UniProtKB/TrEMBL annotation:
Matching Pfam families: FtsK_SpoIIIE (PF01580)
The protein, known as: Cell division FtsK/SpoIIIE
Signal sequence interval, chain numbering: none
Tagged with keyword Nucleotide-binding: yes
Keywords: ATP-binding, Cell cycle, Cell division, Nucleotide-binding
Keyword Nucleotide-binding: yes
MF (Gene Ontology): ATP binding; DNA binding
Compositional bias of kind Low complexity: 405-416
Organism superkingdom: Bacteria
Annotated segments matching region Disordered: 327-347, 395-426
Entry-linked InterPro entries: FtsK/SpoIIIE/SftA, FtsK_dom, P-loop_NTPase
Gene Ontology terms: biological process: cell division
Length: 426
């Protein structure tokens, strides 16, 4: 499978040099081979070990790597399930896993197929050299999965290799053999994509049955609320690990983490269950503000809303900032309590914009992230909060003219607030 960004470069090369597509593809691939030394070839011990966060909380938390090699090679196993309620950090974990996997591996060692019906974060990763495809619907995903399984069967058969590990060993002795990277298929909201698609469910049953030897793995993220467990019934015996975020008691029992306090997890915290044991983790946050650490808001009220939403946080390892008083009503920009400013499209969301429901107000604190001022320390992705359309009135940008404050104000915050990478006083 040729990644999208290579196909794009090959087409550009073809038009620029007046050559056939295959000639352009060969030329582009050769150039990339010369530049791939930065990531290098991962050694076997570090292969498929991806940093995702820290263990536990507090001063003694240690960096944790998810090892996706077979159990026989010291890993957790190839196939996983990610379970949690909306807004608990599932999608951010998937983003972190992919980004850190790309940072620590060569494209010759690790590739990704990313799928999800409402996952804009995946689209932003489509140009990474490791990402083969980003898919939004089940029928396209089914076709990609089946074709890749068949292709790999053919490659191993032709090379007379027992499995992908045997193929890797053969390639070490024969550099002319094509690389066969491990392919991880990540599906956000698998329960939605597969609910009315028996072909897709059959395709993933093939993945968990054949993928171990072919070097194809899957990580399926689902929401427990309303989940039809029949969708997963024939997959569960082959699932090697479960990453559980906050969920209700019934779902926690189903996921086998009821004894590990999954109901009390805060956003970004998770339990990694392998077999009958569980490990508490705090997932790293890879999303960040786009450029500067200064946020420009359209009014003093909006600026204060952003500042308070950022300051009323609990950082990744549990150090809490001093809470500041703030009422959602403070976002009102006129005395009648109704004028919230111009209506805004979700695609144009900026810090300081207001999301209004009947009886609830939230504020944008960074691109793609919003906060509820009544829940200190919690940020949620825009896509998660917009799933709740009940009583939703829209997104608004406070008016530039403010009856009580200067027309323009800025709210300043350290980038580490969103990155969660360091202790605040470090």
């Amino acid at each position: 499978m040729v990644p999208n960004f290579i196909q794009k470069q090959a087409r550009e090369y073809m038009h620029a040099h007046g050559v056939r597509y295959q000639q352009a593809l060969d030329a582009v691939t050769a150039q990339l081979d010369d530049n791939n030394g930065a990531a290098g070839h991962s050694d076997v011990a570090q292969l498929l070990r991806i940093p995702i966060g820290v263990t536990d909380y507090g001063e003694y938390g240690e960096s944790f790597e998810l090892d996706l090699k077979d159990e026989a090679r010291g890993g957790t196993g190839p196939h996983g399930l990610c379970v949690g309620d909306p807004g608990t950090g599932k999608t951010e974990f998937l983003h972190t896993l992919v980004v850190n996997g790309c940072a620590s591996h060569s494209p010759e060692d690790l590739n990704w197929v990313l799928a999800g019906w409402h996952s804009p974060q995946f689209k932003r990763l489509s140009d990474l050299p490791h990402v083969v495809s980003v898919i939004a619907n089940g029928s396209d995903l089914w076709g990609v999965v089946v074709a890749e399984l068949d292709r790999r069967l053919s490659v191993l058969r032709e090379a007379e290799a027992r499995d992908i590990w045997d193929y890797r060993s053969m390639r070490e002795r024969n550099a002319e053999m094509d690389p066969l990277p491990t392919l991880i298929i990540v599906v956000d909201d698998y329960d939605i994509l597969a609910s009315n698609d028996p072909d897709l469910r059959d395709a993933f049953r093939r993945v968990v049955r054949l993928g171990r030897s072919l070097g194809v793995q899957c990580l399926l993220a689902v929401q427990p609320a309303g989940l039809d467990v029949n969708i997963l019934e024939r997959l569960l015996p082959s699932i090697n690990y479960i990453l559980a975020f906050r969920m209700g008691a019934v779902a926690a029992r189903w996921a086998g983490v009821e004894h590990l306090e999954a109901r009390d997890l805060r956003p970004g915290s998770a339990i990694l269950r392998t077999g009958t044991t569980g490990k508490h983790l705090q997932i790293s946050l890879t999303s960040r503000m786009e450029k500067a650490t200064v946020i420009e808001a359209r009014s003093q009220q909006a600026a204060e809303a952003v500042r308070n939403a950022l300051d009323n946080r609990q950082d990744v390892l549990g150090w809490a900032a001093e809470p500041k008083a703030y009422s959602p009503a403070g976002l009102r920009s006129s005395g009648d309590g109704k004028n919230l400013g111009a209506n805004v499209d979700p695609s144009d969301l900026r810090p300081g914009d207001v999301l209004e429901w009947q009886g609830k107000t939230m504020v944008a604190v960074a691109p793609g992230l919003v906060a509820d001022p009544t829940e200190p320390g919690v940020t949620r992705t825009l896509e998660d909060v917009l799933m709740d359309q009940k009583g939703f009135e829209g997104i608004f940008r406070p008016t530039e003219k403010d009856p009580t404050s200067p027309a323009h104000a800025s709210a300043s915050a350290q980038q580490q607030v969103l990155e969660g990478a360091q202790r605040p006083d470090a």
